[in-house]
Structure formats: C-alpha cells, structure tokens
Write a structure and sequence with these properties.
Length: 317
C-alpha cells in the first residue's frame, strides 16, 4: 500500500501538518487519522505543543499503516506535508519542508505554490496549491481551511477515500457544520484534481532525508520558539498579523470615540492617535473581528487582507 519507512511492522505513511493556532491543526490530524481508521488502516495522530495561542505556528503529526504502529516520535522525515497557512513558508520554507522525502508531497493552502517552496523542494517531490481559505469562506463561511485541505490530500494521494474523510467530518461535527465541512472537503478534492503540480529543483543528493528512526543530523523542527534556528516561526520570529485573512479598517466619520474597540481587542493592538482616529498594529492584529463586532456605530469593517494588498500593488504599479 505505502512506502516503507523502516519501521518494525508493515509500511507506514508519515504526514506532518503545519498551521497556526485557531486553524484547526489538531482537528485536521485527528480527522485524517479517523478517516483512515474508518477505511481500515492503523493510525496515529498527535500534536506538538509549544507556547502557542491563536496565530502561533503549530505542528501535528499523523501516521497511517497497514499494521500496528510502534513509532512514537514526532515525524521528522514526512512522506507528505500539509501547510494550512502559506505565510509559514514565506517565513521559513526550509523549516516547513525539513526532512521531506525525495518523492514527497506538499499540499499548501495558497493560490499558487510559493517560490520559496519550489526553491527547497527535493527534485522528485511535488507541491500543489489549493485555495482552501477561499473555499472554506465560500462553503463554510469561516476561514478554517483544514477540511478542504484534507479533501485535497485525499485526491492527491489516493490513500484515504473522500467518503471516509466526509464520514469522519460528519461524525465529529454533527448537523450543518458537518455537512458544510464535508462539502468543503469535496471542493478541496476537486480543486486538487485540476491543480497545477510544481516539481522540485533541489538535487536528490542534497535532499536525502534522515531516517525517522535514526539520530537526526539536520535542523530540529521546533514549535512556538520565537526566531530560533529551524523554528516553524521563522528566523524573524512570528508576527501573528501575517496570517490574518481579514483586516479591520476604521471609518472615522462613523466613530463616536467610545473606545470599546481598544478595550475589547484581545491582543491589545488597537491604538488611537486622536479622539476618533483609531488603528491597529498590523504586525500583531490577527483579524479576529472582535473590535468590529463590539463597535456599535459600525465604524469598523473587516476587509479581506489579500484584496487590500492587491489594491495596494495596483496603486504602487
Ligand atoms: S468601538 Fe467603534 S465607535 Fe467606539 S472608538 Fe472604536 S471605532 Fe470608534
Ligand atoms: S481584528 Fe480587531 S480585535 Fe482582533 S486583533 Fe485585530 S484589532 Fe484586535
């Protein structure tokens, strides 16, 4: 069924899932494992916890096998990497791809595969981008991309049937939420089938991964450590604002100066320069929308970040 990784029993497929706190990273690992279990596989799923909170880089691991799984370590040499937030690879593609097997697969939530990923991808590896946040917003109404990406993963690997993913999703989320997430998984499945596949550029000799049961020589994957070498946070630390999907935009003509937005911001990033002149520190605003929800006069709009950036690019060009 799957490529052996040298474990003591059967053949094991190892998957590493990168995301940010609040994106359903642990749920993604558990749902993938549950779906494979429903399809008759032995499974394992667990997260690596750092000092994470909403917006912090987080990692979860999945193993699938046709026999009981003895390994208990984190996944250092994944067959597949799923990336829920493309800003993680912009910050540190090498850390995200670390240990990927030469013929591995990267599934990334993005409109296209970032150049930073292609630059570090092993020669025979593949990378596929699926706009999972866009699909999730359209189908679920929330920017939670995990079930869309699981559908894409099912399409690209054939390891787990789509209907098993959908069953696992519906068992975990009853009612409308489950139905919406199952529909998102199907959209992700179809999007992946028609997506462009990017190949790697790095020579096989320089991309040989460490055996997962051998002492590691490469950079250790760490979680939640600001700016440490090999950290999934990247060398510059994590500015939690970089993963924002929506940005608050203030309309001073509607603002009454009540100051509630500043009080309610859970990250204390709202500031004011004058009585009705408010803004947010965009390096750390995560786009949660609480400020807008609490603003009674409707002076704050939540606007898609990529639309604002595209408009700024047009103006700049
Ligand atoms: S909550 Fe709304 S009205 Fe109050 S200060 Fe903030 S923007 Fe102005
Ligand atoms: S969206 Fe508003 S409440 Fe949320 S972090 Fe940004 S400024 Fe604070």
């Amino acid at each position: 069924m799957m490529e052996s990784n040298g474990s003591d029993q059967g053949v094991v497929r190892e998957i590493r899932i990168h995301g940010r706190g609040g994106q359903g990273n642990v749920s993604a690992a558990e749902l993938l494992a549950q779906a494979a279990f429903l399809a008759g596989e032995y499974v394992q799923a667990f997260p690596a916890f750092g000092a994470e909170r909403m917006g912090a880089p987080v990692v979860a691991f999945v193993r699938l096998s046709n026999a009981p799984i003895r390994l208990r370590s984190q996944v250092y040499a994944p067959h597949d990497v799923i990336v829920q937030d493309h800003t993680l690879v912009t910050a540190d593609a090498g850390g995200i791809i670390a240990g990927l097997r030469p013929n591995g697969l990267v599934v990334i939530n993005a409109a296209r595969v970032p150049d930073q990923v292609i630059a570090v991808l092993p020669a025979r590896a593949r990378a596929v981008a699926v706009p999972a946040t866009d699909i999730a917003l359209e189908v679920i109404g929330r920017p939670v991309p995990n079930t869309t990406l699981l559908g894409a993963y099912a399409a690209l690997t054939g390891l787990v049937p789509l209907d098993a993913i959908q069953r696992a999703v519906k068992e975990r989320f009853p009612g409308d939420v489950g139905a919406q997430n199952a529909a998102a998984a199907e959209r992700g499945y179809r999007a992946a089938l028609s997506a462009t596949v990017s190949s790697g550029l790095v020579s096989p000799a320089s991309s040989t991964p460490a055996r997962s049961d051998a002492p590691r020589a490469g950079p250790l994957l760490t979680v939640g450590l600001v700016g440490s070498p090999g950290s999934s946070a990247g060398a510059n630390g994590y500015h939690t604002g970089v993963w924002r999907v929506f940005r608050p935009v203030w309309d001073p003509t509607r603002c009454t100066g009540c100051n509630l937005c500043e009080v309610y911001c859970p990250d204390s990033v709202v500031f004011h320069r004058g009585p009705r002149d408010y803004g947010a520190d965009l390096a750390f605003c995560k786009g949660c929308g609480l400020c807008a929800a609490e603003c009674q006069p409707g002076a704050i709009s939540m606007v898609r970040e990529d639309e604002l950036l595209a408009a700024a690019d047009v103006r700049g060009g």
